[in-house]
Amino acid sequence: MANFVRVIQPGLSTTVQDLGRPNHQIEGFPESGAMDRFSYKLANLLVNNHRNSASLEFVSTGPTLRFACDSFIALTGGKVNATLNDQPILQNEVVEVAEGSILKIGPVIEGNYGYLAFSNGGVITQPVLDSRSTTLRTKMGGLDGRALETGDTIPIRDSVVMPSLSSRKIVIKSEKVTEIHFVKGPHWEMFSKKTQEQFQSEIYQISEQMDRMGYRLNGPKLEVPKKSLLSEGTVLGNIQITRDGSPIALLADRQTTGGYPVIGTIIRADLNRFVQMKQGQQFKFVLTDIDTAVEKLVQQQKVINDTFEKWYAGRYIEPIGPIRRNAIKISRLIRANK
């Protein structure tokens, strides 16, 4: 059996992503990886993968794919309408896919980024610097360092067994984001008290200049410190203030170093909400401390941990069904010949 998925329509910008290559930023390579890491991890959890298994990340519009093998999939992230063989399927739950099936993922209705995970190890392209993530501007990783194109074959492993299949679903509440929490950046004290207060009191808006490198924000200009800075390493979520006083939030494909002053860093627990905000969406920055930022991240991870424990506890609840690969394949073959 051929173990791949063929691309019928690639979507707007669909790439292979995992958790990136953070250990190679010191060598000058962008970290890359999934933009919405909570949704990415959730997709892998749903299909019983390791959290760093490569998935497909799509932007604005999803792909149409034909499966050349059996699999289980999960769709997470931005809200989409999707069909499998013209029948609607739901997000945030496991869907069984038979060989020959066609999956169609439409436009992203809410949010920007969606994730498609495949069971039994995800997308198995060749790793580059310990990661399968695609970095488009360096043409590295994924499928030849580029977005998917019509006719591409995405290598996966066939899969016919899924523990706790009927239980593998989760409800993710949709909420309107009006606040993004941040911790003080390394150059916070270089900004005047007036500028610090202005940064926290003004309403900002996601501009049209938004991509995997970063989001430029529209809003009142901030006073920029006059002191020159040497280039420093960048961190996911850093908020740089450019020479014209505009904030830019640095994201997955950001440059490895930067010389603009960093007024703050978006906390990790809020990054998934931030990257899913649409162009024109308004919000305020809210200052928090490191302890609170860590606690929020722990609570977010607890959602994933508690969900996994629930599924694990229910893995032997009836109906158990056949658990052996060959038994399932034989059963399908018999049904097909009736």
TrEMBL record:
Q: Where are the transmembrane segments?
A: none
Q: List UniProt keywords, sorted A-Z.
A: ATP-binding, Hydrolase, Nucleotide-binding
InterPro entries for the chain: CT_A_B (IPR003778), Cyclophilin-like_dom_sf (IPR029000), PxpC (IPR052708)
The name this protein carries in UniProt is Carboxyltransferase domain-containing protein
Q: Which residues form the Carboxyltransferase domain?
A: 26-303
Query: Which NCBIfam families does the UniProt entry name for this protein?
Result: urea_amlyse_rel
